[in-house]
Amino acid sequence: MSWGFLRDLLSGVNKYSTGIGRIWVAVVFIFRLLVYVAVAENIWKYEHDEFECNVKQPGCENVCFDHFFPVSHIRLWALQLIMVSTPSLLVVFHVAYRENREKHHDQKLYKSPGEIDGGLLCTYLISLVLKTGFEIVFLFLFYKLYNGFKVPRLVKCDVRPCPSTVDCYISKPTEKMIFLYFLVATSGLCIVLNVSELSYLIFKYSIKCYLKRYVKKHQ
User: Fold this and answer.
1) What are the pLDDT digits (tens) for 189-199?
2) Cβ contacts of 143 within 8 Å, gap of 6 or more
3) Which of 11, 91, 171, 202 lies at a CB distance of 3.0 to 4.6 Å from 50, suitable for a disulfide?
């Protein structure tokens, strides 16, 4: 697939983000998307061809590979990138709705269509919750599917049609494990950034509401 769409989406969201949100966009774009396209894709490119077992029983290698790698690391990472970026579309659509509404009424209805307040604040908070939720779900999937973020050098397989317990060897296990740890670290960093931005916006909005009530009370 072309990653240009995802890049354009992140660039568009960057205009309406807070400072923490811009850091999140930079982390996703530089440390996740670019690393995926430039390096990680090539590491897992021939993972099935380079998976070897010490028997030549027809079908044995295929079923063993499917048993230990039910979903490819790289495809799961790509799906994760898409899913954690998609909630940002909610913000883009909401801003576009505001702009169209102003055009339709031919008057200024908002201080700025991209200013995070009112309904757009709710949309932004929902997008942050969804992004954090997707990150946690995918980390859990990686943990369950790959036995605690590990890529062993040797795996023992006794799945039919293998005649007995056979030894199978994974290519470049150290390199793959390093990138798996990198994936987990960047995902964890994004969760921290999302939670920080969520807390910041809620705190900021709470202070704003309190000050408004305080001013009204004293007027």
Assistant:
1) 999 999 999 99
2) 149
3) 171
